[in-house]
């Protein structure tokens, strides 16, 4: 392997930097006009020897030239695609940094210097360029004229997008659509003159919220109710009740109390919004202060992320009757009946139905808190959470208030461009119709087959690595092999969405007009009805309906179905391209495939068996050994300090993602070497680069995470995220990679090659 030195440059594809000249046979000219004089016997012998030497030399030279023409030109790829790929990689590198000193700065330094964070972004990285590319492709499709004969679902998608883009119409309607909607919940007390407690019913308000609880809202005040696969009977759906989401990014934002700067900014936003909607300044200040105090208390009784990683502890199955006996302060049967017996869901509910209570301790504390909370405060909180979810969908005045708030919380100073916001909402709301449009517009359908080959390769490598595992016994290895073999995959898009009739049937009930607010409500309601109806049907683990849409830039592992997902929008440069060398593809999408497979065996994923059921399928001794290995990862990442805010990563919350990163890059590299072995030869090198393809794989991996982030974003990731900041996803994974250290010849105990390494898988 070749060691990379600082600021080393290749010219004319020559590793020394000089320009060697190779002489082709047609350029060799023999001088004419000479003569041979009589020589002695010795001279004649010497002359013959010289002639033979020259002839042999010419033969060797010719052979070398032929070898160069047939072999060396294969060794350096000079196609337009290779030149572009080489330039893309080189343009991000900082050659002034040694890879073994800080691989992230080496791989991303130049990219980070040249890219500032846009004013509407909390962070900006190479993946954001992909987000924008996908959104632009979707925008182009959405803004095409409605054509006769196109699928009705596509027409509806264009209509939803157009209503969002109609800023003049939205502005002219003001806040009245929101005020009318708030009437469904007993109205918002702070903006309602003469509000009475009799106007508000907590059970009715919570059941109505659940009927509109889809992806956009994430309102879920006080507590949440969803239908998901039963984690111990994964072929069936069941109702889960859980603690709520919050108005700020997470419960951790409230724990310093109401005098914290961010809590104050949040309260100030609520006051100003209430005034815009009709409250007096004094009423708004008093009532929003009470409301924020309530939410701070709510956050403090909720359960932290660290305590929610034992899936068995979250599984508390009981009948509605039993639930009622534990928490008699709430009419549970009436609540569930109001949700599931509504038109469109039509499921009969009785008190013998089983539900799962994920956080019993939260609900015990909740009803103690509610017993001392006046209905006005509770109603104000629900009204505020609903209102906040629509701030960017109404007038410019409300949008500007939200932008000012986000400047304090997230560091952004302007709102997201309207077209981008509308494209995002449309692709998330009508994900299969938008996915069809994206696939038709830009996706290379052959990519599906290529990715499936990579998945099979990485699956095989994971099983090979199981054989080398020293802390797992043979009995557990066998069930682990069975699980990795059972992992299913959804790649690109479901073929059914290319069938117009199928696609149209998905959106039969979605009828849109010109008014964006009502179109949002229709979308949220229909999506919620679809989710709730699952309660009476078996789980289809192959279905795309419960995961990402094809136009989503993301990837996922779902433990309850033992499935991995790679949407079409994710299978784009810089994660994947048919024009990239396979080293670059394995460093990009290959690492992500390995990452998602490893999720099936991280601290959460290992709790699911091959069928998606939570049970102990490892021996007690193996679990103990796993926890020892995982603790190494926890300790290592807990010692990483994020420079933007001088805070350390939460190694407990991020352990699953960190384990998956470490395993993912290990599998990607080994899978690539396996592919090379089967191919029988190395890939042609990229022009103008000094790196071999083993090194390019790691560089490609690192460069998918190149980016800059604001201090506010760094804080949010530390407090609420399961992923480590991008810098440490690269540094941590590579520090723990024996392959990386060998490929880059990093000295032992250099920053990127610590002597102690953590490697669960």
From TrEMBL:
Keywords, sorted A to Z: Hydrolase, Membrane, Metal-binding, Metalloprotease, Protease, Transmembrane, Transmembrane helix, Zinc
GO biological process terms held by the UniProt record: protein processing
Organism placement in taxonomy: Eukaryota, Metazoa, Spiralia, Lophotrochozoa, Mollusca
Transmembrane segments: 46-68
Domain Peptidase M13 C-terminal: 554-760
Domain of life: Eukaryota
Residue runs in coiled coils: none
Record-level GO cellular component terms: plasma membrane
Single GO MF descriptor: metalloendopeptidase activity
Pfam families found in the cross-reference section: Peptidase_M13, Peptidase_M13_N
Originating species: Patella caerulea
InterPro entries associated with the record: MetalloPept_cat_dom_sf, Peptidase_M13, Peptidase_M13_C, Peptidase_M13_dom_2, Peptidase_M13_N
Record domain Peptidase M13 N-terminal: where: 99-494
UniProt name for this protein: Neprilysin
Named cofactor requirement(s): Zn(2+)
């Amino acid at each position: 392997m070749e060691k990379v030195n600082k600021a080393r440059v290749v010219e004319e594809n020559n590793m020394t930097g000089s320009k060697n000249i190779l002489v082709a046979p047609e350029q060799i000219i023999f001088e004419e006009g000479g003569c041979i004089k009589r020589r002695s016997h010795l001279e004649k012998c010497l002359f013959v020897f010289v002639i033979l030497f020259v002839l042999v030399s010419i033969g060797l030279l010719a052979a070398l030239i032929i070898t160069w023409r047939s072999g060396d030109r294969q060794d350096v790829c000079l196609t337009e695609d290779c030149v572009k790929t080489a330039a893309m990689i080189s343009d991000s590198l900082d050659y002034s940094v040694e890879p073994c000193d800080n691989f992230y700065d080496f791989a991303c330094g130049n990219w980070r210097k040249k890219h500032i964070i846009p004013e509407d972004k909390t962070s900006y990285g190479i993946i954001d360029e992909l987000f924008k590319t996908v959104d632009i492709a979707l925008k182009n499709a959405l803004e095409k004229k409605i054509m006769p004969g196109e699928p009705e679902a596509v027409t509806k998608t264009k209509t939803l997008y157009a209503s969002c883009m109609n800023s003049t119409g939205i502005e002219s309607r003001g806040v009245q659509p929101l005020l009318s909607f708030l009437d469904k919940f007993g109205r918002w007390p702070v903006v309602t003159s003469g509000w009475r407690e009799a106007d508000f019913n907590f059970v009715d308000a919570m059941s109505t919220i659940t009927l509109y609880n889809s992806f956009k809202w994430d309102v879920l005040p006080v507590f949440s109710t969803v239908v998901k696969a039963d984690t111990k009977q994964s072929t069936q759906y069941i109702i889960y009740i859980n603690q709520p989401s919050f108005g700020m990014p997470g419960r951790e934002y409230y724990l310093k109390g109401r005098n914290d700067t961010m809590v104050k900014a949040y309260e100030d936003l609520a006051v100003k919004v209430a005034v815009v909607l009709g409250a007096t300044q004094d009423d708004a200040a008093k009532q929003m202060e009470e409301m924020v105090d309530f939410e701070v208390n709510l956050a403090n009784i909720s359960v932290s992320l660290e305590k929610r990683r034992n899936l068995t502890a979250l599984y508390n199955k009981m009948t509605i009757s039993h639930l009622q006996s534990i928490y008699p302060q709430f009419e549970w049967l009436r609540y569930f009946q109001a949700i599931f017996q509504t038109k469109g869901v039509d499921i009969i509910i009785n008190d013998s139905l089983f539900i799962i209570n994920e956080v019993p301790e939260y609900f015990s504390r909740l009803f103690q808190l509610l017993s001392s909370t006046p209905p006005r405060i509770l109603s104000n909180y629900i009204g505020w959470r609903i209102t906040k979810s629509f701030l960017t969908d109404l007038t410019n005045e409300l949008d500007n208030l939200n932008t000012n708030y986000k400047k304090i919380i997230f560091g952004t100073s302007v709102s997201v461009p309207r077209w981008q916001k509308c494209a995002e909402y449309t692709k998330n709301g009508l994900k299969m119709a938008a996915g069809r449009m994206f696939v038709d517009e830009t996706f290379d359908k052959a990519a599906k087959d290529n990715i499936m080959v990579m998945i099979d390769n990485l699956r095989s490598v994971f099983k090979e690595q199981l054989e080398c595992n020293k802390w797992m016994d043979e009995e557990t290895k066998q069930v682990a092999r069975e699980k990795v073999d059972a992992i299913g995959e959804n790649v690109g898009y479901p073929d059914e969405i290319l069938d117009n009739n199928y696609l149209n049937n998905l959106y039969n009930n979605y009828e849109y007009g010109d008014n964006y607010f009502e179109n949002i409500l229709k979308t949220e309601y229909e999506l919620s009805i679809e989710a709730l109806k699952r309660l009476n049907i078996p789980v289809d683990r192959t279905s795309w309906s419960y995961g990402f849409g094809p136009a989503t830039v993301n990837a996922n592992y779902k433990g309850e179905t033992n499935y991995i997902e790679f949407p079409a929008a994710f299978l784009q440069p810089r994660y994947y391209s048919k024009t990239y060398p396979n080293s670059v593809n394995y460093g990009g999408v290959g690492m992500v495939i390995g990452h998602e497979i490893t999720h099936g065996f991280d601290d959460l994923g290992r709790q699911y068996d091959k069928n998606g059921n939570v049970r102990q399928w490892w021996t007690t001794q193996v679990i103990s050994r796993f926890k020892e290995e995982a603790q190494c990862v926890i300790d290592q990442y807990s010692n990483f300090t994020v420079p933007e805010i001088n805070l350390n990563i939460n190694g407990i919350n991020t352990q699953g993602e960190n384990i998956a990163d470490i395993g993912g890059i290990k599998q990607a590299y080994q899978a690539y070497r396996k592919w090379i072995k089967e191919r029988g030869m190395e890939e042609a090198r990229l022009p103008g680069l000094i790196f071999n393809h083993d090194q390019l794989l790691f560089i490609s991996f690192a460069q998918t995470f190149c980016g800059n982030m604001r201090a506010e974003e760094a804080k949010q990731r530390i407090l609420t995220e399961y992923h480590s900041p991008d810098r440490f996803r690269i540094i941590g994974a590579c520090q723990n990679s024996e392959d990386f250290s060998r490929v880059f010849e990093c000295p032992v105990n250099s920053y990127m090659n610590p002597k102690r390494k953590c490697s669960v898988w």
